[in-house]
Structure formats: C-alpha cells, structure tokens
Amino acid sequence: MEELLTLPGVGRxxxxxVLGDAFGIPGITCDTHVIRLSRRLxxxxxxxxxxxxxxxxxxxxxxxxxxxxxxxxxHGRNVCRARKPDCPECPxxxxxxxxxxxxxx
Length: 105
Ligand code: SF4
Description:
The protein is mainly α. It has four helices and no strands.
C-alpha cells in the first residue's frame, strides 16, 4: 500500500484494487458503489471513502475484503443502482434496512 500510494494519481481506492486483484493481498475498494451500498445496507454512515474503508475492515473478515468489494460493485451496477434501486428484485432485500425506503437512498 505505501509503495503504491507514492505513484502519481494512485489513491487508496486504486491501491486496494491493485493489491486485491493483482497481488492477492486483501483490499477494500471504496468506489462510488461500495460507498452507496454500505450506507444503504447500514454497514457504515460514513461518506468519506477512507473512513468507510476502515469501518468495513472492522466488520468484514480480511480474507473476504477483495471479493466483498467486487460483490458490492456488481450489485450496485446491476440491482442497487444510484437513482433507482430495484428493491423488489433484490436478493438481499430482507437484510437491507433501506429496502423500499426511498428516503434512505
Ligand atoms: S433492498 Fe434495495 S436498497 Fe437494499 S440493497 Fe437491495 S436494491 Fe439496494
């Protein structure tokens, strides 16, 4: 992480993605989907990606960080979209405090 962060244009989001996907070192990639879904799912109230990353690191087992990031990103692209989440078709709706609550989106 420290070495990647010295490269121009590389922040924690990119560094975590590279660590996870290229080096097999667990990383939580806090992109727009991970931030939005983490908040909707009640995993963290933070909008700041670095604070959110550390919140998620507390509750997600380290071995699952990379896969967890990919799952949230895929779910955010395909189901829990920013403007119109598809709660009726969402397979995790029974676990989601924001299901069918537009005021929480
Ligand atoms: S129930 Fe709705 S708000 Fe919750 S994760 Fe699924 S699509 Fe997103």
